[in-house]
Design goal:
38% helix; single chain; alpha/beta; Rossmann fold
Length: 230
């Protein structure tokens, strides 16, 4: 009974918040919309989803960008196409049009090395799409290493030979406050809190801080970056 109730609450929470800008799925949608517009609605030749997970959660959405989708993971399983390390990927130079690192950067102990490797296998004029956190709880311990500011991500991209062409904030101080509370709750209480208060905190965040691209003065929940190989 408790399990069924929890599943119902999770479904309600997902439906109410799936289109909120601070949620990872919405950030992926923003990446797709931006890159399709850049390519005048045409699909790109190929796409590499680095750390796409064993369920390749964004495969269907990313198929809107390219018919040739590859998911690289460090272990075999599920919908993994290529097994390898982000620090030394089994591809030739200048091979991919798009490389995605969705919620991957915080788990890398050598992020600059990873971005340089992405730059190596990226075609000139191709894009690296990054989503990552500036505030979040430690997760997947012990492989959670870093949190990123806008300036920090810009520095890493530039050092890797990538020029930032677009940046989105995932939300400001009100949403940071919301998640400070949410992630420290447990079970159904956490889900109910999210259902009741998420939209309110999201609304307050937009009213008082907006989701400015150049948010530097106030806290940000996280960032989405799109960078091009120059």
């Amino acid at each position: 009974m408790k399990k069924k109730l929890k599943e119902k609450l999770e479904n309600i929470n997902f439906l109410l918040s799936k289109n909120a800008q601070s949620r990872p799925s919405y950030q992926v949608k923003m990446v797709i919309d931006f890159l399709l517009e850049k390519n005048k609605g045409e699909k790109y030749k190929n796409l590499l989803d680095v750390g796409g997970g064993f369920d390749a959660a964004y495969k269907e959405e990313l198929s809107k960008l390219s018919r040739n989708y590859l998911n690289l993971e460090i272990k075999k399983g599920g919908l993994v196409n290529i097994v390898g390390s982000v620090y030394r990927m089994p591809f030739k130079a200048n091979e991919f049009n798009i490389i995605c690192l969705f919620m991957v950067m915080e788990h890398l102990n050598e992020p600059l090395k990873a971005l340089k490797e992405c730059s190596r296998i990226l075609k000139k004029g191709g894009y690296v799409a990054i989503t990552t956190v500036q505030y979040w709880q430690t997760h997947n311990y012990p492989s959670d290493y870093f949190r990123y500011t806008r300036n920090g991500l810009e520095y890493l991209c530039n050092k890797a030979g990538l020029k930032v062409v677009k940046a989105y904030s995932h939300g400001g101080p009100w949403l940071v406050l919301f998640h400070v509370i949410e992630i420290n709750l447990r079970g159904p209480v956490r889900i109910i809190f999210s259902i009741v208060f998420y939209k309110l905190f999201n609304f307050l965040d937009w009213i008082f801080f907006r989701h400015y691209d150049r948010r530097v003065e106030s806290d940000s929940l996280g960032w989405t970056f799109i960078a091009s190989k120059t």
